[in-house]
Amino acid sequence: MGIRKAKPTSPGLRSASFQDFSDVTSVTPEKSLLLIRKKHSGRNSGGKITVRHKGGGVKRYIRLIDWKRDKFDIPGVVKTIEYDPNRGPRIALVFYKDGEKRYMIAPIGLEVGMTVISSKKAVEPKIGNAMPLEFIPAGLPVHNVELEPGQGGKLARGAGIALFVMSVEKKYAQVKLPSGEIRLIKKDCLCTIGQVGNVDMRHVSIGKAGRNRHLGIRPTVRGSAMNPVDHPHGGGEGNQPIGLKHPKTKWGKNAYGVKTRRGRKASNRFIITRRKGKKL
């Protein structure tokens, strides 16, 4: 995938950039793997807004992705590489030998016609193949990594992301995350070989407010532009500093750089090295 810039015929297009979709081989999704995406606009079951700045956006269909990769020892052939509006990377439609079709995240280097396989045993460490962490050679990039066996991939699913297996000892594998954190994951957890594709996704510039509205993102007002009754940063004539020792959230709690991880979180014992600048 590449990035293309539009002809600057308007102020919005002047700074906008777009994906060129040169890697997409089909624009028609598999109907049996589609669901209508319901809109909740950031509201919970009680109708209260729990996530602000959400609402609107174009109608989307959810592509059902095979996060578990649990069709073991059955080879599948990649038929198409498709665009998914719900995520950054491309997705690949795989036709398995028994006739079933499934979507998977498309890593860098995966092309139409290639064969992929998932197994609980060691298989060829080829792009798109899935197997437990204990069989992954050290330093090989992996993605869609499980945290519990059979749970389905939870880590490294975004565009351009990859994890690296450092070593395997006893029941656990040491895995390095993109943040620099090194943590233990059970060695029988499945992962998929390769780095997630569509690396240039992060370089796309939205360019204008209208594109964000199409994405379902509503306007975000700065706290310093509000009145004191609406936000701790509000008030003053013109541009004013926040006037507080620490920046605050809309509800008066400290923000930006405040420790949010619970000290007694159960998974702390699996973290060997925290991400840069963080302590256990």
Give the beta-strand count: 17
Q: How much strand content do the residues show? A: 15-25%
Uncertain runs are none
Tally of domains: 2
Query: How many H/I helices?
Result: 2
Span between termini: 39 Å
Describe the structure.
This protein has 280 residues and is mostly beta strands. It folds into two domains: 3-201, OB fold (Dihydrolipoamide Acetyltransferase, E2P); 221-280, Ribosomal protein L2, domain 3. 4% of the residues lie in helices and 24% in strands. It has two helices and 17 strands. The protein has helices at residues 11-14, 209-214, and strands spanning 3-5, 17-19, 34-36, 61-63, 76-82, 91-96, 101-105, 115-116, 130-132, 141-143, 145-146, 153-155, 163-169, 172-176, 182-186, 190-193, 271-273. The strands form five sheets. Strands 9-16-10-13-14-15-17 form a seven-stranded antiparallel beta sheet, with no helix packed on it. β11 and β12 form a beta hairpin. The model has no long low-confidence stretch (mean pLDDT 94).
